[in-house]
Amino acid sequence: GAGVSQTPSNKVTEKGKYVELRCDPISGHTALYWYRQSLGQGPEFLIYFQGTGAADDSGLPNDRFFAVRPEGSVSTLKIQRTERGDSAVYLCASSLSGTEQETQYFGPGTRLLVL
Amino acid sequence: GDSVTQMEGPVTLSEEAFLTINCTYTATGYPSLFWYVQYPGEGLQLLLKATKADDKGSNKGFEATYRKETTSFHLEKGSVQVSDSAVYFCALLSGGYNKLIFGAGTRLAVHP
């Protein structure tokens, strides 16, 4: 079946601009996660959705970052007033219901470059 | 807070050599532990996992044993192939079971 998909695969923007990154989880998965992977590092947790609600947003670095999942399926990560330090690969993952035993399945990521 | 430390790369091996990639963790309680792999040009894939002490996860010839005494989850393979060349990430599940904490990754290069 279809895995997690993310669009766009690459995004180049200028400092100060607004960007939106989209994630389509595996059909039927209620849990959705966003991570950020900087060059040469492991992914870092940003936010976790259970259904439509953000159950844990402790990883969002500041108030320029915001994510939504209005219908409990597709999620959008929004970054306002982008900075060069926001350049990274943004990864989305989903799991069936967010319990401990479940595997998180990752998408291919969106590579964001802020000039 | 919870953290994962894994050996720095790159690790360069000849085909059929024995592989060990060290991973240690710091955590409250006994989290589930994972190895993820990222092949060139592809997304992160789960390689194996272990959910409690002394469990052994295995897949594709790779193994790792959850060692509570040494807080370790070292990845091993008896005979590596060129196709195993990738970046390997050790991770633990934290924060009420919804947050993966990753190590920095170890790049493996296997030469014929």
Structure overview:
The complex is a heterodimer of chains A (115) and B (112). Chain A is built from no helices and 11 strands. Chain A has 115 residues and is an all-beta fold. In chain B, the strands form 3 sheets. In chain B, strands 2, 5, 6, 10, 11 and 12 form a 6-stranded mixed sheet that branches. In chain B, strands 3-9-8-7 form a 4-stranded antiparallel sheet, with no helix packed on it. The termini of chain B are far apart. The interface between A and B is medium-sized, with 29 and 24 residues.
Oligomer: heterodimer
Count all strands of chain A and give the number: 11
Structural class computed from helices and strand pairing of chain A: mainly beta
> What is the overall shape of chain B?
globular
Helical percent range of chain B?
Answer: under 10%
Residue-averaged pLDDT of chain A: 93
Poorly predicted runs of chain B? none
Count of helical stretches of chain B: 0
Provide the low-confidence segments of chain A as ranges. Answer: none
> Helix/strand/pairing class of chain B, anyone?
mainly beta
Give the percentage of residues in beta strands of chain B: over 45%
Beta content of chain A comes to over 45%
Radius of gyration of chain A: 13 Å
- How far is the N terminus from the C terminus of chain B? 41 Å
Morphology of chain A: globular
Order of helices and strands of chain B: EEEEEEEEEEEE
List its traits:
heterodimer; A: 115 residues; mainly beta; 7-stranded mixed β-sheet; B: 112 residues; 6-stranded mixed β-sheet; 4-stranded antiparallel β-sheet; 12 strands
